[in-house]
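Good morning,

Both structures are done.
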Amino acid sequence: MENILKVENIEKYYGNKSSLTKAIDNICFEVEKGEFVAIMGASGSGKTTLLNCLSTIDKVTSGHIYISGIDITKLKGNDLNKFRREYLGFIFQDFNLLDTLTAYENIALALSIQNINFSQIDKKIKSVAAQLNISDCLDKYPYQMSGGQKQRVASARAIITEPKLVLADEPTGALDSKSAKMLLERFEILNSELEATILMVTHDAFTASYASRVIFIKDGKIFNEINKGESSRKEFFDKIIDVVTLLGGDLSDVI
């Protein structure tokens, strides 16, 4: 199986000598092509810092991160910008859609930057819109769409370029339960049918139960890791809750 992400002994410090905080403490893990991995942890556990480092928003203090064999800790300037465009897809909690563009135009933007011709762009958008059940939203502006529709448009924009890795930051955080469930079911389709490799940060056990593997972070370190395997989603959810309990988390924060 092809290795998409390899994290080697990364550490991240904030502050100065008089007040130094270790946000990430010697984390190592790998993600293979086609995996759907969730990262869970309480507020302040280091999960968001980890995602920022993986997404090239932040730099590690030490260690290496390889995406498709490329050491992203060494990329700078135009090389880093090119890498982001071609290798990564981003899904944010607050959607980050451009209000002055329709859903179609928001999705097309990622492809037009790569100078892909219109006929190819149109074909790709219609295909992914059908997969995410947003074909009837393509002519709408963000203010005309529900939260769930906006998040699915944002998801379409993230995967339309066929990135090596899709990074999702609390993707269901701004959605009601029905919209969240619909989005997560579409994530399963992206993962199983389109073979998108997804790494998702979440504090929510229900959301994490849609992944095939969950990595738990505590105090900047990997605390535990569980695989779904042949378990049903309900059985996997129960396993996640068991680990959250060991983590000392408040169940009201994860259900």
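Second structure follows.
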Amino acid sequence: MPHVVAACSTCRQFTDGLVEFDVEADSVRRMIGELDRRFPGLGEHIERRMAIAIDGEIHQDAHGARLAADSEVYLIPRIGGG
């Protein structure tokens, strides 16, 4: 199961302070759905405010990314530009 780390403190308001958890998912889209099911509101927060790092590679739009059983996923704040 992919291992997820909520590296951003804003995620913790949804997870009751949990920082790390395992998620049964084979894609980022499914991972977000599962996280939202477990922690209502977290999925939308991820969609709007987070970038996702999968096995050390940062994705600004990771919906189509696949996850392996041993993937390590970090939820990190998006960097705005302008």
